[in-house]
Amino acid sequence: MFEREVNPQGAKQADIVVGLASYNEADSIDYPTQQASLGLKKYYGNHSSAIVNCDNHSPDGTEQVFLNTTTEVPKIYVTTPPDTPGKGYNFENMFRKVLELDAEVLVCLDADLTSVTPEWVKYFADPVLAGYDMVNPIYSRHKYDGTITNSICYPLVYGLFCRNVRQPIGGDFAISRQFAEHLVCQPWHRTTEEYGVDIFMTMNAILGDFNICETGLGAKRHKPSAPKLGPMFIQVVSTAFLTVLRSFDQWKDLDVINQPPLYGLRHLEEAQDLMIDRSAIEKQARDGFVESQALLEKNLSAELYSEMTKMFASETIDITPEQWVMCVYDTITAFRDAADKNAVVESLKSLYFGRALSFMNKTWDWSTEQAEEDILTQAQLFHDLRGYLIEKLQG
Length: 395
What we know:
Order of helices and strands: EEHEHEHEHEHEHHEHHEHHHHHH
Number of helices: 15
CATH architecture of the largest domain: Alpha-Beta Complex
Number of strands: 9
Helix content: 40-55%
Strand content: 5-15%
């Protein structure tokens, strides 16, 4: 959805494109823009290249900061119309621009990154030039950063699609021209045009049998996502559930977990520090449970609903990994049949906060490595209990 394009250098072709999706990133976009230019010139000076900022008509001056950032690589600014926010709209514009530029590789970076280096461009682009179609990031993150990834997206991709893709909604990635063509031809739901686009891409790469790998990048340092968590949860989870349901016949007979190859760094640096307020998370869980209790009674199995009711009436919320798997699988089934699908996903949010709190309470004094083992164990449970969901969907 192009509304306007600014192309000061008149770039018409680029072998490699670095894309930056943005909304109100005037305070941060200059840094990843500079790093992208340095990486493109250092490692791919014999290729034509461009940096494309796909923006949501940011009112804070993102466009001016991007275009005024000094780079050796041509820059192109593209925006959606006013009042059309949505990360997916930006990515869709980016994919179409990549095809228009006849590029071989798209490397996409978050516009608020403070940890990106010129080497990130190489770590992403090299695997695509070697024949991979999608490159997902591996970076050290605080054990409580990315709770939607850890509790829903990663275990669903692992448990149902049988791929151990650790950051399926990382925000930073690289794709081939062939996969970009494939993506623009897929049905895009409204939530895909928003924050649901990342899980949409990873799941479609798997379902389309594209070559997938991962690349080590170091640490991810960026603005905290907590202020966006409400709408992000609905959009990401709805897109994931829609894709799971549409592709049931493709994944139901899978079994063996596939581990994508790893490029880039093997040793990751210290993760970004975060301030975590467990009492605020507990309040969101308890308030949400009260608001959604009638719908949860309808969506969950009778035994599971009884367990949740007793737990939320007690002093301690402790949702076990097994209970969480059942909560998610019951909700996917309810989502399939619901007239108001948003309400079904919203009802899961209280349990999601409850599960996040349970994980924090259990792992508060653990190292990142110990917490990672627990996250993997939960993903393995999603795989071990996938028969429960298959039976419900077939029934």
